[in-house]
Amino acid sequence: MLRSKGIGCWLVWCCVFLTYHVVSEEPAADVNDVLVFTVASNETDGFQRYLRSVEVYEFRDNLRVLGFGEPWRGGNMRYAGGGYKINLLKKALEDYRDDEKRIVLFTDSYDLIFLGGLPAIVERFQEFDARILFSAEGYCWPDKSLANNYPPVSRGKRYLNSGGFIGYASDLYAILNNASIKDEEDDQLFYTMAYLNEELRTRHKIKLDHKSEIFQNLFGAVADVELRFKGEEAYLQNIVYNTVPLVLHGNGISKLVLNSLGNYLARAWIPDEGCLACWDRTIELDKIKPETYPVIMIAVFIEQPTPFLEEFFQAIYHQTYPKSKLHLFVHNNVPYHESVTNDFLDRVGQEYQSTKQILPSDGITEVDARKLAMENCLLKKCSGYLSIDAVAHLDNEHTLKLLVEQQRGIVAPLLIRPYKAWSNFWGAITDDGFYARSFDYMEIIKNERRGLWNVPFISNCYLINATIIANKATRPSYEDGDLDTEMAFAQANRQRGLFMYVSNRLEFGHLVNPDSYDIRLTYPDMYQIMDNKLDWEKRYIHPNYSDSFNPDVKPIQPCPDVYWFPINSLRFTKELIGIVEAFGQWSDGTNHDPRLSGGYENVPTRDIHMNQVQYEQHWLYFLKEYVRPLQELVFIGYYHDPPRSLMNFVVRYRPDEQPSLRPHHDSSTYTINIALNQAGVDYEGGGCRFIRYNCSVTDTKPGWMLMHPGRLTHYHEGLLVTAGTRYIMISFVDP
């Protein structure tokens, strides 16, 4: 009898358990029936990014965009506002007001990225046992006085954020109709009051996603998250609550962090294949149909004395973009550069569709010049506007074409000062708008990660879609209080929600450093060997210099242990002569020499020392970087880095002054002797005779260097110059 009663109780308990679960468990939702709503008035960069994440996670058919193409009526969203979004959603849900099973997901769009698909979002939502779930944040906005009215939370973010929420259609419609709201009133306050209404909160089971299991708001929580990779896909880990959010919202001032994370998330960039988002919206210009290319205005700005300006213009000229589709605007604010600028425009200006130059004498400021250039772009009906400062060298001749094909509103090629970490973009900024190093800055500038990067600051060279210039609300601004033009430009774009991209998909070029450029010097570019080594090498090192290091090339040896190398360009030799002749204070050729520490020169020449023309440190650097490797190549086993040299000087020989030099030993471990002008053309006679070997080198060539041991072995003399003037550059290395 007891056994029968036990069985009966067990059956009753089973019936109750099954009945309860059948009634209380929500049926699994069909994600095809889930409605996803957002509000967007126009197609901004942020909205395009939002749509891309929707496409990546394959629920474009579920999405309904409200208010698209209509004027925004929600007030200024930098402060309170957004009631317009509520009224749009209320109207959209009228047909579903009684649907208790259909799930509705609502999010912002301009500052939001999906990190997962609808099946995962719905599954997590149902685990909350809520009818409506709002995202949560750590700040009570917009009314701080309501903070104490919130239910206490043991762990997690306490306050409601309206940038993302999910719920059942009938419940959402009910709270939307609980009270009215004007378009310009605040949407977050509206939802906050509904949540704080205990009766509404209980009836509709309204909850907050306190631990960011679905919705991650970044404002005040940037330190809570880490970008991580699992296999080939980037994901976001909330390290405080150990969750992996599925919706990322860059609310408030955290939008720049969202932009940085957005470079990777939603399969935008993966380690093996690199940048997948780079290919979105790109086009390919047909090189055999130049007539189809968009018209571009190239606006050049020379605002400060800048080294290697000739090479800058040559890089502009060599761009593989049909010049019939290019307008050229040049603002030169530096009188010193007028000759180079005028020469360039006189030689090739007629090849462009049009040219316009603003001279220093015109007195137009940089800000006004930039405005004038944009107005010219609109006047010429350009499709794009390339702004380029004179420090930006586009070494890749396809740069302009590639930027056009990228099809972004504002896009810059990555340009770096060679051998430095200085570039034309910032990966992050401080709260007051100045430079901060992003987590991926070094990987980007080293090209360890290639792609198209959404960044908060670009400068020096960028292409702007002309539609941005044509719209007064988005036209670039270059003035903002005490900010320089670069800072003002970037800040205005950030405030307007305009994305700025920098591309390092390929090598595009480099930046020169103008900081030490002193136009008071004779040939100031010659003095840029340390600060602009790459450009200095291209201009002043002999084009065959590197051939000497080819193992198949035997060094030229005109006399025993005397080696002959091409080392400097003809331009170097001419400009070095120009520097010393402009200085003009040649020694008198006597043994008395006050420039030396002892005041006595044993074997005097007519010369000028490098320290007299402010070139001593530059020449010592030249010895280290270009002479020392050649010495180690031929005088095997001798190493001295850096080389020492107390005597570095240009010697001048001519019949009426000092035509030759008596036999002598050099006070050096080895000596270099670089010919600066042409035997048989600039002078007759001359040369160097090594007496012990009775071997002479007379057919010297400008820019070629003789290198020979000093001290005991190579007793030598300077042969007689019978006509003209001979110049040589001498260094006694490691005395």
Described by strand count, sense and barrel closure, the largest sheet is: 8 strands, mixed
Q: Please provide the count of β strands.
A: 41
What portion of residues is helical?
A: 25-40%
Strands in their spatial order, largest beta sheet: 16-15-14-17-26-19-27-24
- N-C termini distance: 118 Å
Bulk shape:
elongated
Unreliable residue stretches? 1-26
Q: Kindly name the structural category.
A: alpha+beta
The radius of gyration computed from the alpha-carbon positions, rounded to a whole number of angstroms, is 36 Å
Strand share of the residues? 15-25%
The average pLDDT value, as a whole number, equals: 94
Tally of individual helices: 18
Layout of SSEs?
Layout: H1 2-24, E1 35-39, H2 45-56, E2 63-66, H3 83-92, E3 103-107, E4 112-114, H4 118-127, E5 132-137, E6 159-168, H5 169-176, H6 187-196, H7 198-203, E7 206-209, E8 215-217, E9 225-230, E10 233-238, E11 247-249, H8 255-262, E12 269-270, E13 274-275, E14 296-302, H9 309-317, E15 326-332, H10 338-348, E16 354-358, H11 366-379, E17 384-389, E18 392-393, H12 399-406, E19 410-413, E20 415-416, E21 425-426, E22 428-429, E23 435-436, H13 441-445, E24 452-455, E25 457-458, E26 461-465, H14 466-470, H15 485-495, E27 500-503, E28 509-511, H16 533-540, E29 556-559, E30 562-566, H17 570-583, E31 607-609, H18 616-634, E32 645-653, E33 661-664, E34 670-675, E35 683-685, E36 688-690, E37 695-697, E38 704-709, E39 716-718, E40 721-724, E41 726-733
